[in-house]
Amino acid sequence: MNKAEVKKRIDKLKSLINKHRFLYHVKDTQEIQDSAFDMLKHELFSLEQQYLDLITPDSPTQRVGGQPLDKFRKVPHALPMLSIEDIFTQEELADWETYVARLRQGLRLRGSDSRSYGGQARLEYFAELKVDGFAVSLRYQDGVFQTGATRGNGTIGEDVTQNLKTIESIPLRLEGVAKGEIEVRGEVYMEKRDFEKFNQERKKKGEELFANPRNLAAGSIRQLNPKLAASRPLKFLAYDIVSNLGQTVHSQEHAMLRSFGFKTDPTARVCDTIDEVVAYWSAIKKKRDSLPFMIDGVVVVVNDNKIFSELGVAGKSPRGIRAFKFSGLQATTRVLDIQLQVGRTGAVTPVAILEPVPLAGVTVSRATLHNEDEIKRLGVKIGDTVIVERAGDVIPAVQKALCELRGGTERVFHMPTRCLACGAKLVRPAREAIWRCPNKEGCPAQKRELLYHFVSKKGFNMVGLGPKIIDRLLDEHLIGNAADLFELQQGDLAPLERFAEKSSQNLISAIQQAKSIPLSRFLVSLGIRYVGEETAIAISEYFGDIEKIRIVSKEELENIPDVGTVVAKSIKEWFASKENQKLFARLFKAGVSILKTKNYKLKTDLRGFTFVLTGSLQFLTRDEAKERIRMAGGNISGSVSKNTSYVIVGENPGSKLKEAQELGIKVLNEKEFLALLKT
């Protein structure tokens, strides 16, 4: 973008950020998740750093929060309550370290407590949790609590002293302090279990539920009636001393706060290097879900207070501190293109090609748009800035188009009428939102996707044989369908580039070892429409033999739980196809054999219980968890309902967790789930 385009983009970003900042900080509500909002602010800050003369006093990067509400007395801060600039990647953390080192060199700084390293004063860092709460400042006179204020606009806050006095973790008198003024800053928050109980009580009374603990904490502190705040289980975590008490490093302040009687972050630590900061961040990320309160990253600060002070402030954020965020469940990015993907059943799905963006721990560059109707509903155009969302192991999806940021160059997407892979005319069956390619036997895209599915973990689980190798085998005409895989010889792979003798031998061995397969996985591997894992297991347990399934009537199939008219019709059509009959015969001629299903003998009887899984598990794969539930007699469902017994929650859970909480369904983490199995 040239400078004029950057200015136009900056103006639109400022307008949108101010809108959502007002909703969140003044109205105590929000339309988008914090992670998406942070990405908007991050983009604005990055653009302004390219053209410093475009930074204006009214920019969101030059202020901290919304205007204070009139219903509270205004309180000026002795020292501004500044914001912290966000970073999202290890590369940005390293860039910040380089930036700080360059500033120090220019200012000829030397750290008072830093160790010399290669002739240079070496920085020391302090890392601590970034609690997702509500920032306040506490002023003590001669050891007695006098005034408590909100952040407000950073310079002037709101007097909420009486509300803060109701929080038990805020001492009304400091231990060991008799004289002088001391100002302490920290975070008001609510623990997750208290938040869940609070929302459950509101639900019983028919009252509106709070979206998250931070909104509840903020709303509680900003109530006129202190009794309301007193009725809510709020807590306080201290992280900073503004007053000069002789401390030379930030880590000393944490020790002093504890001696005064404040709760501080028990995980906080001094880090000698940026690598140690990254190690701390990674360790916290792994146990994030097990913490009693919500966090969205870690705060990294130059530990030496003298160096921190001399580094100064850029806009409204100190140069010597950064918030190293975890990538959220939502993020903002741009749609570079919209392409079509033809699936193994002929479904044609539009996919957004994105500017790569960190999201829920990974970098994503593609997101589903589901279907043509969804594109129209969202109003997404090529070139739009959008919010994408990912939860657990769910495929990223576009959630919202930020139309306010359009610059006029965006293009409308038009759904083609013919399959781009084979040229067949697309059809849209009645009562379906998806266009399909009807050329089941001649569409190369469908054949390719079916082969990907056939060799995957859900199917034959051919270790080492992924999409890239399948593509090469197809492009070299070494295979045409799944049965051809079992006829491959090591010599067939020798002419292929980058296929050494050892890798060829390993691949052939993996294919041959995969010949023995449980009946349920064999059914899944065939790619029969509507036949997923649970349906395949139900059919396998009912018949126990593939030959019976081949000749069974449609009516008998419909008698099986999880198999209705549509599924039964699809199964019968698959086995009636002459092409599929040929494939079936060739597979068995190649030596494919059906195994009996494993039979775990678990101590727990889960018959009559229905489980729903959401998020990524640490100790088990999702397939292993499902299999253990089934072998103990339990049922598995893909959606939460009043009939759900338990919801198993891993890292980055999706909307199923919220649905379970709203319905009062019992939620188990992975360790509690394993304890239930008693393995």
User: What structural class should be given to the helix and strand makeup?
Assistant: alpha+beta
Overall pLDDT, averaged?
86
> What gross morphology would you assign?
elongated
Percent helix, as a range, is 25-40%
Number of domains: 5
Largest sheet: 6 strands, antiparallel
Number of helices, counting only DSSP H or I runs of 4 residues or more: 25
At the fold tier of CATH, the topology name of the largest domain is D-amino Acid Aminotransferase, Chain A, domain 1
The CATH homologous superfamily of the largest domain is named: DNA ligase/mRNA capping enzyme
Return residue spans where pLDDT drops below 50 for at least 5 consecutive residues: 109-120
Keyword list:
single chain; 679 residues; alpha+beta; Helix Hairpins; D-amino Acid Aminotransferase, Chain A, domain 1; OB fold (Dihydrolipoamide Acetyltransferase, E2P); 5 domains; six-stranded antiparallel β-sheet; five-stranded mixed β-sheet; 25 helices; 27 strands; 20% strand
Task: Tell me what you see in this structure.
This protein is of the alpha+beta class and 679 residues long. It has 5 domains: 3-62, Helix hairpin bin (Helix Hairpins); 86-325, DNA ligase/mRNA capping enzyme (D-amino Acid Aminotransferase, Chain A, domain 1, 2-Layer Sandwich), CATH 3.30.470; 330-435, Nucleic acid-binding proteins (OB fold (Dihydrolipoamide Acetyltransferase, E2P)), CATH 2.40.50.140; 444-591, DNA polymerase, domain 1 (Orthogonal Bundle), CATH 1.10.150.20; 610-677, Rossmann fold (3-Layer(aba) Sandwich), CATH 3.40.50. The chain is built from 25 helices and 27 strands. The strands form 8 sheets. Strands 16, 17, 18, 19, 20 and 21 form a 6-stranded antiparallel sheet that branches. It has a 5-stranded mixed sheet with strand order 2-15-12-5-11. A 4-stranded antiparallel sheet has the order 7-6-9-10. Strand 3 (116-117) and strand 4 (120-121) form a beta hairpin. The longest helix has 23 residues, at 3-25. The model is unreliable at 109-120 (pLDDT under 50).
